[in-house]
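Key result, reporting period 2: structure in, sequence out.
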């Protein structure tokens, strides 16, 4: 309560109009394939596809060092996440994103696919195919899923990943129903 009073005093010192009061839970303008309810029901490690060379990080079993680095970036940004959750979108269709980030500010999870070695034709084709499947299933880029592609197996641009997550946050902010003044 003290912190809220301090913020209100700071606001009053800078602006003439009081800020909108935003109540939780938030209401979103459009329904999403990936929502808070689904995120809360799922748990890490649900992907039925075996991992050839598993990498363990803080209780999560991941497929690559790049996924570990992505988890570390998400942690630096202060978001909760789960790995390899199972999202069923149709009778014969499901997705298990590498990481699912919960953007608590907008009460919205976003899937993150980390694709490495785009300099190798096989990985590039797999990445393009995966993106097409997500879009065909109704996922919206940045609202529901982020595709983080690495040029090769040895580069990881943390600044770019942070920017992509920020873009997803801003995209989801636009989908929030704000109270009338």
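The corresponding designed sequence is given below.
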């Amino acid at each position: 309560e003290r912190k809220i009073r301090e913020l209100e005093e700071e606001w009053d010192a800078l602006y003439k109009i009081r800020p909108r009061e935003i109540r939780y839970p938030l209401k979103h303008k459009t329904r999403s394939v990936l929502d808070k309810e689904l995120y809360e029901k799922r748990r890490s490690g649900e992907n039925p596809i075996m991992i050839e060379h598993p990498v363990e990080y803080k209780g999560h079993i991941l497929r690559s060092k790049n996924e570990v680095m992505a988890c570390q970036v998400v942690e630096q940004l202060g978001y909760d996440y789960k790995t390899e959750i199972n999202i069923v979108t149709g009778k014969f269709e499901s997705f298990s994103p590498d990481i699912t980030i919960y953007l608590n500010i907008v009460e919205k999870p976003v899937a993150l696919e980390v694709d490495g070695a785009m300099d190798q034709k096989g990985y590039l084709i797999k990445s393009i195919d995966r993106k097409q499947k997500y879009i065909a299933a109704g996922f919206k880029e940045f609202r529901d899923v982020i595709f983080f592609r690495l040029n090769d197996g040895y580069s990881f641009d943390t600044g770019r990943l942070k920017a992509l997550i920020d873009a997803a946050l801003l995209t989801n902010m636009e989908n929030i129903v704000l109270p009338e003044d």
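The first strand starts at residue 55 and ends at 57. The beta strands are 55-57, 60-62, 80-83, 87-90, 93-95, 99-103, 108-115, 145-149. This case is discussed further under Risks and Mitigation.
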